[in-house]
Amino acid sequence: MENKQNQIKDLEGKKALVTGGTKGIGKAIADRLAEAGATVIVTARNQPNGDINHHFIAADLTQPQDVSSLTDEIDTNFGGVDILINNVGGLTTPGGGFSALTDEHWESELQLNLISGIRLDRALLPKMIERNNGVIIHISSVAAKQALWNLNMAYAVSKAALNAYSKTLSTELAPKGVRVLTVSPGATKTPPMEKFIQDFAASAGITIEEAFNQLLGQVGGIPMGRMAEPSEVASLVHFLVSPAAAYLTGTNYAIDGGSLPVVL
Question: Out of the domains of life, which is the source (predicted)?
Answer without folding.
Answer: Bacteria
